[in-house]
Amino acid sequence: MNVNIDQSWKTYLNPEFEKPYFKDLMTFVESEYKNFQCFPKKSEIFNAFNHCTFNDVKVVIIGQDPYHDIGQANGLCFSVNDGIKHPPSLINIFKEIEQDLGIPYPKSGNLMTWANQGILLLNATLTVRAHKAGSHQKQGWEQFTDATIKTLSKEKSNIVFLLWGGFAKKKKKLIDTTKHIVLESGHPSPLSANRGYWFGNKCFSETNSQLEQVGETSIDWRLV
């Protein structure tokens, strides 16, 4: 399977593409897409990288798995295609932005405008079989996305990493916290949010504050 990923990333991640685990992963993904309905579309698997070049990354949001229902996943974590009903976690993300920044709840759940501003919306696993959550976990994607996080940590500085929930918080060990900013909170899923671990964390205004402190342009969290 061709790795349809922006050249800026290839410069840093080429060593991963040559490793046996990654070649096995691509064989697995090719087979899954051939024999089953999988998400996102094959052309969108690396969307997180293709809409946010390596040089542009200033914020990283880490998710776990793509959405597994028809028409939802578009290669960006937490994001859904235009016209698709917002999943519960995304609803709570938008509610927190509304409370934190006074930005009205958006019609679209497509986070492409965030990616285009330098937010890497990275799922740990980049593909999934339809209606089978977690079906492509432990096939090599996690090794690849961990390598991505480590590379960003090593090669760049002053990135704001947003770690939402227990799974994402485990990635903190991959990040050099002496030169990057790590903001941790509960997950925006209803289970976590309704227990008081999400709402009021103000991670969106805090992200902008941290970016401004290091001379970076803040994020416009509106979905235009």
UniProtKB/TrEMBL annotation:
Reaction(s) catalysed by this chain's protein: Hydrolyzes single-stranded DNA or mismatched double-stranded DNA and polynucleotides, releasing free uracil
GO cellular component terms given for this protein: cytoplasm
Q: Name one GO molecular function term.
A: uracil DNA N-glycosylase activity
Which InterPro entries does the record associate with it?
Answer: UDG_fam1, Ura-DNA_Glyclase_AS, Uracil-DNA_glycosylase-like, Uracil-DNA_glycosylase-like_sf
Spell out the CDD domains in the cross-references: UDG-F1-like
Is Ribonucleoprotein a UniProt keyword of this protein? no
Biological process (GO) annotations held by this record are: base-excision repair, AP site formation via deaminated base removal
Where this protein primarily resides, as one coarse class? cytoplasm
Pfam families found in the cross-reference section: UDG
Is Cell inner membrane tagged as a keyword? Answer: no
Q: Where is the Uracil-DNA glycosylase-like domain?
A: 50-211
Q: Which Gene3D superfamilies match?
A: Uracil-DNA glycosylase-like domain
Protein's cellular compartments:
Cytoplasm
* HAMAP family recorded: UDG
Protein name as annotated = Uracil-DNA glycosylase
Organism whose genome encodes this protein: Winogradskyella eximia
Q: What is the lineage of its organism?
A: Bacteria, Pseudomonadati, Bacteroidota, Flavobacteriia, Flavobacteriales
Gene name for this UniProt entry = ung
